[in-house]
Amino acid sequence: MFERMTEKKKEVRVVRRIVLIVALILLIIIGIAGFQTYSYVTSALDPVDPDSEEVITVEVPIGSNLDSIAALLEENGVIEDARIYKYYVKFNNESEFQAGTYDLLPSMTLDEITESLKTGKVYREPLFTINIPEGLTVEEIAENVIAEKTSFTAEEFLGKIQDPAYLEELMIKYPELLTDEILGENIRYALEGYLFPATYPIYEEDPSLSLLIEQMLDTTQANVMQYQTVLEEQNQSPHWLLTFASLLEEEATAQSDRQTIASVFYNRLNDDMPLQTDPTVIYAMGEHKDRLFNTDYEFEHPYSTYQNKGLPPGPIANAGGSSLEAALDPAETEYFYFLADSTGENHFAKTYEEHLANRDEFIGN
């Protein structure tokens, strides 16, 4: 009996040791998990990248709730974790976020992001802004914007956007937008037409050329890729869209109906007629002209739509949103000709005879 009691005590001690070891292991696991959870939550409450100056444009649609806004912010890399942000917002009793377009940064705190969404404007004020008007070429952007507003010269900017190594980096970063079409044999500037016209906030005193260029490309991608489904249905590429839209942008006046101008171009393309749009000749010649003469129309160049049928090899300017939309949604007309009078109003014609009559009436000799 004594031996059995001794043996039983040994078994109890073994069981206690096992229980103690299991308990210690569980405590260690719980401790590690708790520390990892604490570290993750702490990290998610901090800015994604405190040193980043990248501007991320986020579009918050009307009617968005907290779940969709948080998911949108995480998807765009503005916050680390959508669930943590939702708990943070609810804990601080924040609400009434506003729809709109926000230029946010990964370096913004959750408070700054929340304040921006509540007020409907970016909480962080830029040091200055750069405005790219619609219809500028990359040379005009270089001379009239970059050289005027930054420490870079026009030559440095143009050199950057023609640097093969940098273009390769951009094509990797924007694979759907920047395809091999931008490197075509007759392309003058690979990024012509890809620097979207808009007002860009700058948060650095001396921003790099890469930052400036990629801000513009980010905006172009946001505006172009919203039509990705339509482009696929029409078997067209972003390059085609930006090229077509650039012709509309250059032909447009303050009173222009871009959709009707687009219909003229479509009708000519469908009838295998050259587009014969003057801005392509001016771009081909590489110099600004207020008026073209007969000899100019005979200038042979891949970009001239008088000498070549179809669209030019690439965009001839940077088009705005209204031109992009018109390129994909033209009016239905039977017009093949148009001209603008001195007030900027366009006059359309179905036949060449009607076009000549319009020229005599609204322009004269």
TrEMBL record:
<feature type="site" description="Important for catalytic activity">
    <location>
        <position position="251"/>
    </location>
</feature>
<keyword id="KW-1133">Transmembrane helix</keyword>
<keyword id="KW-0961">Cell wall biogenesis/degradation</keyword>
<feature type="transmembrane region" description="Helical">
    <location>
        <begin position="14"/>
        <end position="35"/>
    </location>
</feature>
<keyword id="KW-0472">Membrane</keyword>
<protein>
    <recommendedName>
        <fullName>Endolytic murein transglycosylase</fullName>
        <ecNumber>4.2.2.29</ecNumber>
    </recommendedName>
</protein>
<keyword id="KW-0456">Lyase</keyword>
<keyword id="KW-1003">Cell membrane</keyword>
<keyword id="KW-0812">Transmembrane</keyword>
<dbReference type="Pfam" id="PF02618">
    <property type="entry name" value="YceG"/>
</dbReference>
<comment type="function">
    <text>Functions as a peptidoglycan terminase that cleaves nascent peptidoglycan strands endolytically to terminate their elongation.</text>
</comment>
<dbReference type="InterPro" id="IPR003770">
    <property type="entry name" value="MLTG-like"/>
</dbReference>
<comment type="similarity">
    <text>Belongs to the transglycosylase MltG family.</text>
</comment>
